[in-house]
Specification:
This protein is α+β, with helices and mostly antiparallel strands and about 230 residues long. It has nine helices and eleven strands. The protein folds into two domains: about 110 residues, Sandwich (Jelly Rolls), CATH 2.60.120; about 80 residues, Arc Repressor Mutant, subunit A, CATH 1.10.10.10. The strands form three sheets. Strands 1-8-3-6 form a four-stranded antiparallel β-sheet. It has a four-stranded antiparallel β-sheet with strand order 2-7-4-5. A three-stranded antiparallel β-sheet has the order 9-11-10.
Length: about 230
């Protein structure tokens, strides 16, 4: 148990909100959060589930998605280590409106609703963090509608990769990202083969380099604005 708590503490250190809290509030969160292991392909939560926790990625990679009435899978977001999600459903007290699936073996932290509510009621920094995070997530979802309806696959891959480096939604991301082409396809709503073609094009544009088992971002602003040129 001591080792698990130590790993949890290290995982919380990657988050932005934990650094904002008073020491006694951080301690309360550490004491009441539980950790679960979700194997690759496993569900962290399902659409329609009751919402009892705020959840965060300690280590691994998650995809937030839903299936339309026509059977199309729509990917809303992905979460890497340090990213937390589900605050909107907790605040509205409604059933879960999406599925969250582990794309690889993942350790997930579960903060009980009671702890979340306590921090909401007693911590101004926590409220400020949530306000910024909700604003960032709204901006992300609006941009994803644009990606899906208006952009070609190459641009969609570029913009979806860039979105993974949001400091509020995925604060633990480094420029070297361990991600497979299949996973890039998942988050961009394209096939693995089409993701591979897009990566080759973006590599030729010197926006990223394709490494064994992942990619390295060379020009994040270029990815965010692709295909628009970025001033030197």
């Amino acid at each position: 148990m001591a080792n698990i708590k130590s790993e949890l503490k290290q995982g919380l250190a990657k988050t932005m909100w934990a650094h904002m809290l008073a020491p006694d509030h951080v301690q309360k969160a550490e004491d009441e959060i539980v950790e679960r292991f979700i194997p690759a392909g496993g569900y962290v939560c399902r659409k329609g589930d009751p919402v009892d926790h705020w959840m965060g990625v300690l280590d691994g990679f998650l995809k937030m998605s839903s299936i339309s009435p026509e059977g199309k899978t729509v990917t809303f977001s992905c979460m890497l280590a340090g990213g937390w999600f589900g605050e909107g459903s907790l605040l509205k007290t409604e059933p879960r409106r999406y599925d969250v699936v582990a794309l690889r073996d993942t350790r997930v932290a579960y903060m009980p609703r009671s702890t979340f509510t306590f921090l909401l009621d007693n911590s101004i920094p926590f409220n400020r963090f949530l306000l910024h995070q909700l604003n960032e997530r709204l901006g992300l979802f609006i941009s994803l509608v644009e990606y899906d309806r208006m952009l070609d696959p190459d641009t969609r891959v570029a913009r979806c990769l860039a979105a993974m480096f949001n400091p509020y939604l995925n604060p633990g991301s480094s420029m070297q990202l361990q991600i497979s082409q299949e996973e890039i396809g998942y988050i961009s709503s394209v096939s693995r083969q089409r993701a591979n073609q897009a990566l080759q094009l973006l590599e030729k544009k010197q926006l990223l380099s394709v490494d064994y088992g992942g990619i390295t971002i060379l020009n994040l602003e270029g990815l965010r604005r692709y295909p628009e040129p970025v001033a030197a």
